[in-house]
């Protein structure tokens, strides 16, 4: 399908004027102009979710689904974005992975659940992914890649099914392939902030880094993207240092919170091995 190469100047002015109310302050505090409204983001999220469910084996254990949802909703309650109906889904797969897509859809793989050792680590992963949604990282990346012409059609409800399919495919690729260093740093920072605010021990974030490094020290081409971002290399060490510095600012009573190791181990025993 061909899209108009250019929009008229007056149309661009009208578009930006009408959408300025969509400007949002992300977790990092910077002002961003989001060309996709919240309702349209929700619709995109539903499309993404349908695609994920069509291509994945969803883990249906009720205890685990309730457990994951309770942790997720507890973090959402203290986040800076409560205008979405967040859902938390477990995918049955040996892949060590987790990701989020627009609209508040958070996914985690049983392979990753089997690697972690306590509830604080699960809260850290969940909070990190929620932070990507709060900051609209996938939406921002879609804006950068798709450009204003296609975004105009999506915003105005004029996008064809082919264009929508392209946006869905690109969005899933972004979520699964990862974000820029700045986006990951932002998700690290606010992931720790949100999990602590929700009552979890923020040291779970460091524990997650350690577990990933110890369990997956193989060659980078043998690991998923999620494993690679926690692998031992300079960028990850920088992230660890930043998280350590952030956590060091919390008082002793926060860092002595129970990480719920025993409860997590009981839940872990229910997982497919």
Notes on the protein architecture:
This protein has 273 residues and is mostly helical. It has one domain. The chain is 60% helix and 7% strand. It has 13 helices and 5 strands. The protein has helices at 9-19, 38-55, 62-76, 110-115, 119-134, 137-155, 161-177, 181-197, 203-215, 225-229, 234-247, 252-255, 261-268, and strands spanning 23-25, 31-33, 87-91, 98-101, 105-109. It has a 3-stranded mixed beta sheet, sandwiched between helices. Strands 1-2 form a two-stranded antiparallel ribbon. A hairpin with a 3-residue loop joins strand 4 (98-101) and strand 5 (105-109). Helix 6 runs antiparallel to helix 7. The longest helix has 19 residues, at 137-155.
Shape label: globular
- Radius of gyration, Cα only, in angstroms? 19 Å
Structural class per helix/strand content?
A: mainly alpha
Q: Strand count, sense and closure of the main sheet?
A: 3 strands, mixed
Tally of structural domains:
1
Strand order of the largest sheet: 3-5-4
Give the terminus-to-terminus CA distance. Answer: 45 Å
- Level of helix content? 55-70%
């Amino acid at each position: 399908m061909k899209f108009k190469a250019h929009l008229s100047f007056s149309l661009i002015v009208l578009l930006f004027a009408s959408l300025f109310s969509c400007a949002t302050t992300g977790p990092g505090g910077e002002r961003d102009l989001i060309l996709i409204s919240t309702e349209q983001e929700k619709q995109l999220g539903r499309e993404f979710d349908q695609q994920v469910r069509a291509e994945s084996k969803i883990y249906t254990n009720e205890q685990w689904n309730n457990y994951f949802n309770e942790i997720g909703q507890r973090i959402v309650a203290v986040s800076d974005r409560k205008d979405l109906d967040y859902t938390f889904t477990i995918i049955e797969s040996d892949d060590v992975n987790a990701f989020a897509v627009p609209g508040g859809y958070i996914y985690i793989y049983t392979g990753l659940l089997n690697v972690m050792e306590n509830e604080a680590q699960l809260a850290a992963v969940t909070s990190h992914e929620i932070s990507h949604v709060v900051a609209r990282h996938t939406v921002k990346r879609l804006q950068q890649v798709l450009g204003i012409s296609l975004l105009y059609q999506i915003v105005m409800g004029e996008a064809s099914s082919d264009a929508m399919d392209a946006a869905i495919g690109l969005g899933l690729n972004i979520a699964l392939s990862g974000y820029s260093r700045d986006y990951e740093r932002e998700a690290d920072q606010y992931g720790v902030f949100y999990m602590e605010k929700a009552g979890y021990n923020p040291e779970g974030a460091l524990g997650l880094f350690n577990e990933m490094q110890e369990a997956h020290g193989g060659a980078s081409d043998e690991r998923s993207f999620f494993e690679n971002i926690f692998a031992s290399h300079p960028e990850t060490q920088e992230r660890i240092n930043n998280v350590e510095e952030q956590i060091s600012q919390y008082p002793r009573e926060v860092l002595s919170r129970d990480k719920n190791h025993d409860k997590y181990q009981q839940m872990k025993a229910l997982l497919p091995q």
